[in-house]
User: Fold these one by one.
Assistant:
Number 1:
Amino acid sequence: MTFIIQKTLVYSIPLLIVALAGMFAERSGIINLALEGEMIFGAFIGAVAVYLFQTGNILVEHPQIMYVVAMIIGAAAGAVYSLLLSFSAVKLKADQTIGGTALNMLSPALVNTLALTFFSQEKLVMPLSTNFVLKNEDAGEFLKIFIDKAYISTPIIIILFIVLSVWIYKTRTGMRMRACGEHPQAADSVGINVDKMRYLGTTISGALAGCGGYIYIATTAGGTAESTVAGMGFLALAIMIFGNWKPLGIALGAVMFGFLKCIGAVSSSIDLLKNLGLPMYFYNIIPYFVVLVVLAFTAKKSGCPKAEGIPYDKGMR
Amino acid sequence: MKRAVSIVLCLAMILCSVALFASCGNKTYEIAIVTDVGQLKDGGFNEGTYNGAKNYAEKNNITYQYYQPANGANATDNDRIAAMRQAVKNGAKIIIAPGFLQATAMETVAKDSPEVKFVFIDGWALGLDNVTAVVYKEEESGYMAGYAAVMDGYTKLGGTFGGGGTNPACNRFGFGFVQGAAAAASELATDIEIKYSYKYGSGFGSSPELQTQIAGWYAAGTQVVFSCGGSMVQSVKSAAEETTNGKIIGVDVDQASLSDRVITSAVKGLSVSVEKILTQFYAGEWDAKLANKTSNLGAADDATGIPFDTSRFQKFTKAQYEALFAKVKAGEISISSEVPENCNDAAWLTAAVADNAHVTIVFDK
């Protein structure tokens, strides 16, 4: 049981944080299709940081601290990268869908070029064996979920998720940001700087996506960065839509996706599931099927921010 | 004004690209390596081939360069053709291409450029005089790794294989592994269980799915997992290092340095054989020894085996390994390499070990 919960979390945590990233951008009025690209870039820069730490013999004795630092650096990289999107969308009033798509195409190419230039390979493998896993075999069953065979990123992301969800709903800045996604003209009329709010939303979004990208490679590929995150960014977008642009829905969606993916992968190791004999494709299909059904029934009262994707024009009322 | 600026910019761009091409044009590379799906630095197949060429080239002061076909794991024949043509254009005299997927591309380019020689690793003779093929008896390496693991006391084994069941090299590795483990199980009269899967890693990459699947195996008691396919080892490593004791068997080249969980590796002598072929080529022996021929390399050529000195065995001794190796080399142990074209099916494997009561196959599909 503990095993399934842990493995569900391995999938869910990056999805959770990246879907929240998408929500932050869209709530401020910017469609962030570039989540995938931001994840790839954040993951790569995080990996570069760990590479430098290891070759420079910094923090090698403290893998957990190194992991957290790499997450922060990945987040910073994602934030910087997302500025390209917010600049084109806010300042240049460009089409956000096209801007996001361009960033998604730019990121793998950029990572390949950088990796080939500095490491003469398309993949950045860590010089030392990297594994940030925590091990506490004597812990109680419940605690084990978080501290045995688990990653420190899990509790950090859960806390961050709660804090940010409360922040966007309960604080003044958070509410202002949401207003800019619903009706920027009204927000502007009461003195809110729409451009600033949109920059803020997209930057937070980029940071979360970059952080999620590094967590993804650190927990599943020993920290090896490539020019892909296997479509996790797009999956996160789907989860955000499934979650109706709300944190609780996103959490539910991420856990459901994670759980079913996990069940599909381990079905042969659990007797109960083995006896059912369902192919892994079945489990892989369910979450998408559920998304379709849910969208079909809820599309009418979609929580989609009203002004997302529309460049803010002061003159338009 | 705007127009003037854009014209200037356009001219600058054209000049730049011309300069770039010109600077490229000056450099030629005699030995070219066109990689298989996966990455150059996959710590295995591509890297082993590349290292062989690199060693030879550096020893003899010959220029060398690698080319990775575009689109990574989804490279098409056209991408490979483009990479090979680029190699020819850059002055390659001999192109080394690992991976059976390169057949079509190699046939096309080899016909176009009869003056360039091609080395088809894991391939077969294409009926062209400028192509030579090298195949390995992977089943021997797999056999020795499986035998050693069971002799060392492991009873619950696993194997995850790349290529989705259609990669002949992976299939031979896997079949040999099962046969070796089975032989050791009868010798020791202990019961063993082998989990066998092609489920994830058809593109030889790491993924959370693979990591979860292997973590599931370790959690259900599997002690050692044979990771057979390029970068897949990264996910297996992640899964192993989450456990207290999970072990790994590497593939293609000695992967002991990757993690202290790697107990041994089923290697094939990629770099050794590439060096050998290059030596023969530069000695002018192409027509006599290599043209349109397939070299089938095994223990007899020291091209298969396990790297005992870097292995982390508890009980399996060097003497035991040497005895085993000698037997394989002399052909005293018959190891079958008869695998179906698509191995992603439990029936053939269960049938193959049906007469051995000590072995249970759990096929994870």
Number 2:
Amino acid sequence: MSFKPGRFDWKRELAASSLAAVWLALLAGPLALFKINTSDYSLGLRWPLLLKMAGGAFVLSAVWRRFLARRASARRAAQRGEADKPQGGRGPARTWVDMVMGARYRLQIIGLFILGLMSIPFWASPYVVHIFITALIYIALGLGLNIVVGVSGLLNLGYVAFYAIGAYTYALLNFHFGLGFWLCLPLGALTATALGLLLGFPVLRLRGDYLAIVTLGFGEIVRLVLVNTELTQGPRGIGNISPPAFFGLDLNSQVKPHLLKVLPLMSPDLDMNKALIFFIILALVILTIVAVFRLENSRLGRAWLALREDEVACQAMGINRTRAKLTAFALGATWAGLAGVVFASQVTFINPTSFGFMQSVMILSIVVLGGMGSIPGVILGALVLILLPEYLRSYDDYRMLLFGALMVLMMVLRPGGLIQSVRQVYIHRPAASTPAAPPRQEPRGT
Amino acid sequence: MELFLDLLISGLTKGSIYALIALGYTMVYGIVGLINFAHGEIYMIGAFIALIASLALSQAGLAGWGLLVSVAAAAVVYSAMYGWTVEKIAYKPLRGSSRLSPLISAIGMSIFLQNYVQLLQSPNFLTFPSLVPELGFLAPVSHIVNSTQLFIWLATALIMTALTVLIKFTRLGLSMRAVSQDPDMARLSGVNIDRVISSTFVIGSALAAVGGLLIGCYMRQIDFYIGFLAGMKAFTAAVLGGIGSIPGAVLGALVLGFAESFAAGFISSDYEDAVAFVLLIVILIARPGGLMGAAQTQKV
């Protein structure tokens, strides 16, 4: 950081920030200044609010410009070759993920981490357990969508439809026929897969954005059908969905008292069914991670990557485009179906409002924000996007406002996502004397 | 017959408003290749500015056509300013990055603007005044066509004509066509790409603002959420007609308006919103480039 204080032209900065403040005041003017009185439709004036907003804009603009200037000067310094010393985690530096994955005891580290996660229900409050179940569901959803969007490059804006289908499969089978969770888990996944194939066949020959809008339309159609049919009880939804069974034991009355005796830290208010669901979704997420990781390095996974990079070249190499696309689409749907069944058992009451377009957007944001195609990125993205609104709850009214602003900001600062996926590059070495070149890792470009 | 005529008229009215919004989508997509998710919010902001301006100006003593014209002017100017600012903040820094990053940024902007209006004004529906003065000569047929509807058709037709003239015959229009065909070549030929993109956002937002004003006059109520569904449908209309094509957007919007209106009348109003998407899927499967989009051949 060779930022010379002498170059800081405070007059110019002041002028620029003032201009930003004036522009924002002008822009927000009518909406902020006038308050429509809803009883008689008269207008009230709010000068203090407008002044506050202008002041806020001034400060934000000053900070922002300062930040940009620092970044530009750091970049200039790096170009001049002065940046030998490490710079606070920027650039293609090794992230903690690489460090863990490269460590000698990585299996032990991961195992300890999983054990740590598994202990959560035994000391955390029911609220924390609930939030973690939600976060884990979104991790499963994000990883599923990652196969479709991140790895295969098929923009799916109606992913939530498959999630809804999974959830409703369980809810309806449970409501009408009393089928249990364990039977419905594969059934929900199968139904979602079947619908994924059904939608996939006709639409997969569409290109990028057309595919996006058709999947969006599909999501809306599914939601509208859920709202308007008698079978799904419309907007009233379906309640009293039974929790997963555990070897015929009633967890709350038969198991919890014993556990409470041994585990003093465990919260007595905790619903043991929630704890069971926590373990189920945790197992599901681990299974997903392993599956996705193995898939990425398989023949099919490489076909997906080729499909994303260049469809024509990929076909020319003899990859069956339709089959690769369909498997990606259907596998993504499968995971959404699984997550949907778990979601239905977690909340025990579902209605169509849980499956709106905003949910699709949320899952897509997890994938893009975390870093497309990167497994740790998706996990981090899900944690940020699910936990952030919870932390922002104290600013209740401003929660979604800040959330939107942060989404824009994150994209502007790190367009490639929080953890960019690393692509393996094989270098051709002509000399036969050297041993086979290890795969070099390079950050993925645009 | 009466029902048929009613549905035809409401379809045309809705289609006209969709067309005004769809143009913004299609122009932006044609030039920067971005689905501008925040466009629906610009339309919503246009409607809110129109409401506030109409309340303020009618207090100041304006009425009749004078009021309508000044309200429209305020909505257009403000929405254009919003469109310009949104492009500068959320899209310009992301130019040249992957295709999905600007999309997420656009979605974030859309969430931000919705909540911004909700916090500053109201989370509830607000009544919108009928700004279009009654036209005397329509009195005999007022049960079929009212003056608001007639005004919506005329205003839309006028704006479409003006836009066509702008695209076909002005220097700005020429640069816009050049950038949409080949940005690099356009830059080499001395076109200021940044200015063209800004102008596209400004023009698209101004059209959306007119749409917002007109929907307010027609539906007589607005809230902070109207931009979402309208934006999705307008985008559907743009894709339906072949995205990037201006006559296509108008055609797609009218087809959508009629289809929705007839579906609501003859099938069930529950599925009115689903019609747009079913139609979209059917048409795209039959004609993957949209109604007026050229079939795209990919060169290697």
Number 3:
Amino acid sequence: MTAHYDQQPVLQARGIVKRYGSVTAIDHADLTLYPGEILAVIGDNGAGKSSLIKALSGALVPDEGEILLDGKPVHFNSPMEARELGIETVYQNLAVSPALNIADNLFLGRELRKPGILGSVFRMLDKKAMEERAQAKMTELGLMTIQNISQAVESLSGGQRQGVAVARSALFGSKVVIMDEPTAALGVKESRRVLNLIKEVRDRGLPIILISHNMPHVFEVADRIHIHRLGKCAATITPESHTMSEAVAIMTGAMEVDSDSEAA
Amino acid sequence: MSSANPKPSAPVLDHDKIADQAGSGSYVANFEDKDTPLQRFQKFLHKYPVAAPTIVLIFAIIGFSILVGDRFLHPFNLSLVLQQVTIIGVIGVAQTLIILTAGIDLSVGAIMVLASVVMGRMAIDHGLEAWMALLIGMGVGALAGLINGTLITRFKLPPFIATLGSWNVFFALNLWYSKSQTIRSQEIANNAPLLQWLGETVSFFGARLTYGSLLMLALFVLIWYALNWTAWGRHVYATGDDPAAAKLAGIRTDRVLLSVYVLAGVVCAIGAWVLIGRIGSVSPQAGYTTNLDSITAVVIGGCSLFGGRGSIFGTLIGALVVGVFRNGLALAGVDVLWQEFTVGILIIVAVGMDQWIRKGTA
């Protein structure tokens, strides 16, 4: 895979701290994402992984620490700001509008307008261009078992809806795609499709941060695994260097890891 | 480190492989064939929300033309139906916008009457130019909408309660400002004929259309365009459909809601102008039933009260269905109370249909 560990990291978090009153949700956490890799983030409930992810996707502003995108420090005050810099997030609860069609959903909030006076004065949508680009992206990701791009999203299965959400992130995410439990709500077959889709997105050059509780899924698709414990990174392993039970042991604190096992 | 090739140019063949791996290459398309005719009908109605009211309208027209004969189908009578539904149609446009966002506006009628009183008094009592009086009336409509929208987006009141309150407030303001007095038609005709202009008619082949009816049709086309061909329209649907998802997609749903209520207020003020044209005078007691009639038109027109689903032209059809039933039953010599009875049945059937249709693809 083409993860390029000798290159500059795409996204880097250094010493992130977030406190809620007396509770420290993130305690000097580090995270590094290299080009072309799938980095899984695992951790027990309450380990602070979702807070860390929120900091990276702009949903939360950290108290301390810095976030580097392509080596440059960045600050997000909202998810929109993160998005504008090319960091897309796929949310667990399928953030799609059921009554709208696939093309509308892909471009929701970022619609294309017709060129010229039709677009500038009459604000007319360029439906044709949006449908074509949606079609192209869905085909590219192998999602065109969905017959019709103007089909309402509610007529799709859970996995296909997740596919629409992933396609949206791949369409607009120019740097990083963050996926929060993308298979949590899906059955076995559907999970498989989504996992393949995740790899497909990675193979197209977009690095992915994957948050998941599902160890077999993590070990199947991840290039590296970031294990979060007590508000910070306990270890970064690879599916080759450690077994699933070792990963769980690190997650729960039953096993200590020295920094030698740090991947890359 | 796991290893695989970079695949910079995506081989097309891979997609088949992925579908095969998933073991479900064809299961997506399959379920369509197993539908019973009833299920297919349900899906059809789901996809085309205007279909059901259109079918009802066509059957009603056929039914009444058999029942009542040529009198019903005469162009003059049909244009009369259109005149009778014009106000409901205009206010229905405002109501549709709000119901699409999963809201409801009980104050539309009160906004309309208040705006008409303001227009009338500005022109007659304060001697302003008629066009200025109209503009001030529109401003009052926009302000009323802004108040509703602020209560709902800023203070998070449920639309039903917020507009129930503002309905009473606007109606009381209207009685206070008008001093409960009617401005007579003759007075308006002498001093500000522009206010009555929408009541004037043009003839097409024996049909007599008012400018108000034409304005209503233009309004439907305009709002249809805005809802279907602009980003704002998509955001209105998305906000009504699933506000949380819309927010995550980056839509500022509060701003969309606010814009919808303000626009609805302006549309109600346009309705006020149509109202003056229709009845000639300005009366603080006019348009008393418009609130509920507008909701009736929207619901019969196939808009879901749960938001995000429906078409603006459904409301026009819905208003016409009500107009055709009232007119047809009246021509057939049926007592007025049975007109009300029929409209009531239509509402219940329409909402029942909506429930059934939405269940179809859950």
Number 4:
Amino acid sequence: MTRIFIPRDAAALAVGADRVTARLAQEAAARGLDLTIVRTGSRGLHWLEPLVEVETSAGRMAYGPVTPADISPLLEAGWLLDTSEVVNHPLFLGPTEEIPFLRNQTRLTFARCGVIDPLSLDDYRAHGGLAGLTKAVAMPPEAIVEAVTLSGLRGRGGAGFPTGIKWKTVLDCPDARKYIVCNADEGDSGTFADRMIMEGDPFVVIEGMAIAGLATGATKGFVYIRSEYPHAIDTMTRAVGIARRAGMLGTSVLGQGSSFDIEIRTGAGAYVCGEETALLNSLEGKRGVVRAKPPLPAHKGLFGQPTVINNVISLASVPVILDKGPEHYRDFGMGRSRGTIPIQIAGNARRTGLYEVAFGLTLGEIVDTVAGGTATGRPVKAVQVGGPLGAYFPRALFDTPFDYEAFAAAGGLIGHAGITVFDDTADMLKQARFAMEFCAVESCGKCTPCRIGSTRGVEVVDRIGRGIEPEKNLALLTDLCNTMKFGSLCALGGFTPYPVMSAVTHFPDDFVAAPVVEAAE
Amino acid sequence: MDRHLVSSDLATSVAEIVSDMKHLEGPLLPILHAVQAAFGHIPNEAVPMIALGLNLSRAEVHGVVTFYHDYRSHPAGRRVLKLCRAEACQAMGSDRLGDRAKSRLGIDFHQTTADGAVTLEPVFCLGLCSTAPAAMLDGAVHGRLDAHGLDMLLAEVGA
């Protein structure tokens, strides 16, 4: 019996993975072939999706992108025979793990993603799952926190705050009721790592949350998933049920006496709820309005109780840290950016997908070497790093290493590590305007610089675009961005100046209006 | 209060949803999701019932309903086509697709065709940034859309 692996990750479904699966099942039945189709997460080689893998004695062989029309010819070429006969097929990519895009990665957090059946706990265990939690249940809470601190793990949601310190703060609170909240409100364009891990390896998120619960004395966890991710919601909901039935969650985690359970919650389309305090308000059933800090969520978070709120990837990185030891994780990376980071290559790139690697690659290496430039074949004009609130980088800054501090020094941010590539047809004034417009639409309305500044920002950019007093309006835009940056309550208003000002600074030619021709109507 | 206008079906359904879910920690969003799933929107008449069930003011519930983009005040068309308009899709030409959809359907974003067949909505990121431009038709995702792919989706919704 041959096993065939086809992803059910949303990115693969969006380009026809279900149609490929249906055709294969149909053709196999018609030919009386003995095969098992395993639906996996995605390997993250998204430009090759639907990427189909065939298990052979020499390992898993990759083919892609496969369309339903390819199935019959592939079967006729001896696809399922354990031979090298189809090696000459144009879709043949060789052993999956040897594809350079995958071979050159360091997969710690995403080690199982795309490999296993996401909802098989046996598969999860067979590939190293539960090893971290098994160690954690035998450790005192302080030792778990110490391990996470030693690993150097910093919040992967964007802020980069040391995870261990956050956990220690909650552990030190004497309250009886504490919460673990997993922030899966991944609203930043250009990012999809949270979605991929929830769809491709949901148990690692659950395991990370359970470890966080043991480490801090929290007994209840929430995963707040954005409503735009129906596949992730479905997979996580089913995974929590399976974990509960298997004793991974419940009144006695792994039978060791500690209680921890998880509830999945769905967002309602507000980008600002990715901000941690707005997310907590939303979970409480309120408008997703940002809270002033202090008090920190670690002291007074969900329902006023001490709360660890971490991004999906931060939590999903914890099991491997416990399993392999903090030093193993810490030894990857550079400076104060330790471990690996799942870089998401999006937009107009030749090779799009997820690339988990130690910190330290330069932006140029990622864009030119890993991503292979643009999909359209035109020159790269700009890359936006870190989502809608991240700066646009020109080629002149491509020597910036992927590291929290280096990006901050270059006037940008890593954010959730999404990289959106634009070719030379991009109009940076339009992108700057969009950043302000997006902020205006999504502002929670609590603080003035964000609520009003963003609307005024759109107007000022429009005036520049129409050539109305450009110098005065550019000065005004700069001043407005300063006010938003330093006067806003959270990153939405505070970071919108990054895309705007980076566009102004690095692409000044786009802010010179063409001579105004009054329309004769 | 127009209580007499409240159909007993709606009252019964909302009361059931509220009583099923009010034990949850922070029950309001799950309740609103369930009400919208049942009726296709959040009927005005449901707001005071939910408020009463959760011991909140009508203003508080109204404030929450109107804060979130997902909650509808009116039912959508029979199909909902969401086109991603965020940066990664912009880099792959989503603006042109949006214009094409609007002109083919004869409506703007947030509008429904006159025959009630389809509602067109913008969405800011489906997380399909690596297979851009992306769209979602009801629950089904579509990536690497070009003009032809969009036309196929529009044909599917009868436009």
